[in-house]
Amino acid sequence: MADQAFYSRYVERRLSEALEDSPVILIQGPRQCGKTTLAQMVCAPRHLTRDEDRLPQRGPSRRSLPAKNRDYTYVSFDDAVARIAAETDPMGFVADLPERVILDEVQRVPALFATLKMEVDRRRVPGRFVLTGSTNVLRVPTIQDSLAGRLEVVRLHPLAQGEIAGQRPPVENVRQSLGFLDALFGKGFKLRRTERLGKEVCERIVAGGYPAALVRPPGRRRANWYRNYLDAQTQRDVRDLARISTLEALPRLLALAAAQTAQLLNVSDLAAPFQLSRPTIQDYVALLERVFLLERLPPWHSNRLSRLVKTPKLHVGDTGLACALLGVDAAALAADRTLLGQLLETFVFQELTRQASWHEEAFTFFHYRDRDKVEVDIVIERGTQAVAGIEVKAGATVTQADLRGLRKLKAATGRRFAGGVVVYDGETCVSYGDRLYAVPLRLLWETP
Predict the structure, then answer these.
(1) Which fold, 12-156?
(2) Is the overall model pTM greater than 0.70, yes or no?
């Protein structure tokens, strides 16, 4: 398999834990981000490869389940025969399933969810069904209600930088801190020096995080993969979600969104090149969100502050896809400082959400902006008790002006303020007092 690559995924531990007590586990994320590989590595390695040496030796993948529980049957609903059988007789299809089963791309058979509920209620066995889904099926109220209390969701993103580098999961290495988020909400960041990423910043942004894209050489071959991926998405998953007569508008809309990534969502600007209404464009944006190609970052609110902007920010789901849509390589990105700033912000946002997906704590992400144009690129809440802010800067220096938004956030949150960081492409990790720091970009995934 030329496009197959095996990476140790940090979220494996969460999947293994869910298998111990949840009857249904849904691994949810965009196509080609590694959902099937993860499910097979943990539950059905015999379906993955006969060459055991190709399985990753690092991380928990080789010991996630006892051998007796690693023999799940694998069924893919991309297979038309299996899909038609499940659609025609969902009750009979589920009744004939073996003891433990992986149902891949389950969003293609929505009628199956009600039947799965009945089967779980009849016989509740932990780890009975492992589902994968390339669309956010939980946005469909009937599906969400049918498996309430029976389903645990494991969110899988494209690869984080530590996963690409083959680093051990942070919790496994007692000699290093637990990671950037732990330092941010914990004891803070220690004074240290490190090397700048320099031109490597643009290379990482353009590469993105899809495993199948990363096995291709940088440049035209990798960009072609991303463009073909987008075509497949619009022709299959989006068409399954809604009967859209103007599918050709979706790649153009996504390219416009890529040019506006990390900016406030402006539906009028997105609608301008099309002979389509604003409500139609809003519906299209929602569809692209459901297949994880776009993400809205909601505004953060506080009763202590007035004049807050209540418009969400728009982020493309992966910077590699964004660069392919915009036709920029690493050299072109380095020459366009405005676009670099936008894509770097999206890159940092993606990296943090990917790290949050395997963390023990629950994190919620926002942005902050007021009508005086004071802003914080990323605001993170840990539960209801702590708030932190991240400002992203493409340059190699940090000034007091870069801390303005973080100081305003600190004043608004009081004792809830855990810390504020300017992430920049510099060499020195340093404290500015009041739990405010400048942190080199590479320390997002290396030891803080």
Answers:
(1) Rossmann fold (3.40.50)
(2) yes
